[in-house]
Amino acid sequence: MKTIINTENAPAPIGPYNQAVLSGNTLYISGQIPIDPVSGNLVEGDIKLEAKQCMENLKAILNAADMGFDNVVKSSIFLADMNKFSSVNEVYGSYFDEATAPARETVEVANLPKFVNVEISMIAIK
């Protein structure tokens, strides 16, 4: 059985998917790009602000499922330019306690939706 998780505090999906799916105690969160859920506009121009918007979108979805970043067990970060890794990592790291941070991979990709610079997805467990 699965439960669909959607919140107005994160951007609405831009395709045939949901913000997240809860299956049992596991939450699978779709990749979040730096869209401001209030304006619907992309946050652009500063990779740290872009990464922060991704993380805030993820936070809103976690909260909608009654979870937080301490529930995250796996993250995936997709970057258009690996040279921006340290800036994204700085922002990402500010949301976690390093001692209990989740497993993660970070990969450089050719393109991302709407040609953004960063996309982040997560898996969390209650």
- Give the tally of β-strands: 6
Strand content: 25-35%
Largest sheet: 6 strands, mixed
CATH class, anyone?
A: Alpha Beta
Question: CATH-wise, what's the superfamily?
Answer: RutC-like
| CATH architecture descriptor | 2-Layer Sandwich
Tally of separate domains: 1
The CATH topology name reads 60s Ribosomal Protein L30, Chain: A
C-alpha end-to-end distance: 16 Å
The class by helix and strand makeup works out as alpha+beta
Give the neighbour order of strands across the main sheet: 1-2-3-6-4-5
User: Which sequence of SSEs, written as H and E, runs from N to C?
Assistant: EEEHEHEE
Low-confidence stretches: none
Mean pLDDT: 97
Number of H- or I-type helical stretches: 2
Could you say which overall geometry the principal axes of the C-alpha atoms support? globular
Estimate the helix proportion, in percent: 10-25%
Task: Describe, in plain words, how this protein is organized in 3D.
It holds the Pfam family Ribonuc_L-PSP. Belongs to the RutC family. One of its GO terms (molecular function) is deaminase activity. It comes from Euzebyella marina. The chain is an alpha+beta fold and 126 residues long. It has one domain: 60s Ribosomal Protein L30, Chain: A. Helix content is 21%, strand content 29%. The protein has two helices and six strands, in the order βββαβαββ. It has helices at residues 47-64, 85-93, and strands at 2-5, 20-23, 26-32, 72-79, 103-108, 118-125. Strands 1-2-3-6-4-5 form a six-stranded mixed β-sheet, covered by helices on one side. Helix 1 (47-64) runs parallel beside helix 2. The radius of gyration is 14 Å and the shape is globular. The mean pLDDT is 97.
